[in-house]
Amino acid sequence: MILDAKIPDGPISEKWDNHRFSSKLVNPANKRKYKIIVVGSGLAGGAAAATLGELGYNVDCFCYQDTPRRAHSIAAQGGINAAKNYQNDGDSIHRLFYDTVKGGDFRSREANVHRLAQVSVNIIDQCVAQGVPFAREYGGLLANRSFGGAQVSRTFYARGQTGQQLLLGAYSALSRQIATGQVKMHTRCEMLDLVTVQGHAKGIITRNLANGDIKAWTADAVLLCTGGYGNAYYLSTNAVGCNVTAAFRAYRHGAGFANPCYTQIHPTCIPVSGDHQSKLTLMSESLRNDGRVWVPTNADDCSLNPNDIPEDDRDYYLERKYPSFGNLAPRDISSRSAKEACDDGRGVGSGGRGVYLDFSDAISRLGESTIRERYGNLFQMYERITGENAYQRPMRIYPAIHYTMGGLWVDYNLMTTIPGCFALGEANFSDHGANRLGASALMQGLSDGYFVIPYTIGDYLANAGAGSVSPDGPEVKVALDNVKQRLDALLSIDGKRTSRSYHKHLGQIMWEYAGMARNEKGLKKAIGEIQDLREDFHKNLQVPGSGESLNIELERAGRVRDFLQFGELLCRDALDRNESCGGHFREEYQTDDGEATRDDENFAHAAVWEFNGDEETPQRHVEDLQFDNVKLAVRSYK
Question: Could you give the CA distance from residue 255 to residue 618 in angstroms, rounded to a whole number?
Fold first, then answer.
């Protein structure tokens, strides 16, 4: 596997501009000769499909939901970063670039991150023009708030519904292209395989979830905008339908998978309440602007009403440990600190797995009406789920799987190691290193979709030329047959266990041994247990019904099968990375006070895995990361 990042020459501030100028173009009249497949209709996919349609390309866009508006991007709450410096508080493109590289614990590619910071300023203008109702100050100017890992206010927001409003903006642009016929939208269609011809991505195989119809679609290029793999842990803040199948199928066809062990634990989620749950609920990081995180100083006080615990008997541990950033310390650090407090016996709520997020100071200072205006929908959601009024009693929160920084390896053009196959947004690995800062996921998705892929895909198409393969071609027929065989195999096992039970079992293994803290012994045990679970899956799975109609159990079984293979890959990556960095915390590599210890000499690289067959161990490759503009240093938020 050749890992050529294709990073342009020149100063980092000029790389993107120079690259756009040097990239080949497709004549406007020729764009109609090309067909592009976009898999996923969230912020990255919706933005890409709308923009490419506007440029004149013929686009087929696929999503497994019944409408693009249900893409999981809708669940993002807190905001979107951009280096506008509207607050005149010292922000700049370079500061956003630096904060993102540092926040990722120096494990991201400098050139891609700087481009992200550079185009962030365009995203806000684009979204305002679409009518996205960002919060505004009294005078009418766009408002900002702070997020973790930054000492400036650069986050634009729409109360606690920013993802929803941004998605509606992208959907409006997408709908316009659907109406003109430039984009054909295919809902309730799940991608089950990638079609490659002579090494190039030339199409996909889908299953219609409503009627079971399996069909091949061909094009000149394929864009995977399918999000992350957090649901490998079963319980996460992701929608239940989120899965790794599209990216994993590309991996099996030769696309490198980079840094799968980089998983983000979000520190502010509603704690697990019982075995009945199929997902967890996020409480936006924006709440930490006004909420203070604490636990009782004395373990004996954990069962008391939090309002009865005196101020002197409260440990505001983030403010104590990280005074420069306080409650807005980055997610990985905040999550580990919460776990540390609970492991110390000072956790609150059921099972002692919770900490308090307290708004009493902010309500006293600003008034309840101000807090209600800023976070009203989040408080309402919390009360519906827990039955508790967070205006009167502190919220209970605990970390949960939320986002994945790993993903398909891509070069500067967002192309995977399969020519013609691109990965956008959370589906790729390039921008966030080992830990993503809050409010940067929306920024990356819209950056890739609106402002990056329209340039870089043109360069590929101009070099490759038009000519998508026939849907009746031999390679397409082989892919179709493989998909049908895999589905038939799931239906024919006739065992006694449901796919959900296997998924839940896998999640317990992953959370126990590859969650917030990991070690060599646990990861080796996890690999063995996953292999045993996968073997049992193929012997004892029960999938009722047939594949020729709506069959939710068949959908789930296919996704769980891929999770069972992918989970082992994640654990192998975590086992081979003998350091602690960002969301990857190896217990063997930490300071005396529990902070992560990186190994820049041996691990300042992206680990990229190559599929070698079901019976072979995948091969590990590396892309060395160069730091010419940010000095490698111990990451400190104290």
Answer: 12
Which of 260, 361, 282 minimizes the C-alpha distance to 319? 361
Helix (H) or strand (E) holding 441: helix 441-446
List of residues 6+ apart from 486 with CB closer than 8 A: 192, 558
Q: State the pTM of this model.
A: 0.97
Contact 403, 264 (CB under 8 A): yes
Instruction: Output the pLDDT for position 470.
Output: 86
- Residues ≥6 apart with Cβ < 8 Å to 434: 104, 105, 107, 259, 262, 332, 405, 581, 582, 583, 584
**Which among 143, 64, 111, 100 has a CA at the least distance from the CA of 456?**
111
β-strand 221-224 against 35-39: which pairing, if any? parallel
Q: What is the CA radius of gyration of the chain?
A: 24
Position 455, amino acid: Y
- Report the distance separating Cα 451 and Cα 465, nearest Å: 22
Separation between Cα atoms, residue 426 and residue 68, nearest integer Å: 17
Asked if residue 183 lies in contact with residue 59, where contact means CB atoms within 8 angstroms, the answer is: yes
More confident residue, 519 or 638: 519
Helix (H) or strand (E) holding 372: helix 368-386
In DSSP notation, 312-333 reads: GGEE-HHHHH-TTTGGG--HHH
Over the stretch 182-230, which tens digit does the pLDDT of each residue have? 999 999 999 999 999 999 999 999 999 999 999 999 999 999 999 999 9
**Quick one: CA dihedral 325, 328, 332, 338, positive or negative?**
positive
Nearest to 429 by CA among 585, 236, 630, 260: 260
CA distance 445 to 223: 13
Domain(s) labelled CATH 3.90.700.10 in the chain stretch across 267-401
| Fold exhibited by the domain 474-603 | Methane Monooxygenase Hydroxylase; Chain G, domain 1 (1.20.58)
From CA 36, how far away is CA 224, in angstroms rounded? Answer: 11
> What CATH architecture does domain 267-401 belong to?
Alpha-Beta Complex (3.90)
Place of tokens 């892309």: 623
Q: Angle, nearest 10°, between helix axes 43-55 and 162-180?
A: 30
The answer to whether 550 and 544 are in contact (CB under 8 A) is no
* C-alpha–C-alpha distance, residues 203 and 185, integer Å: 16
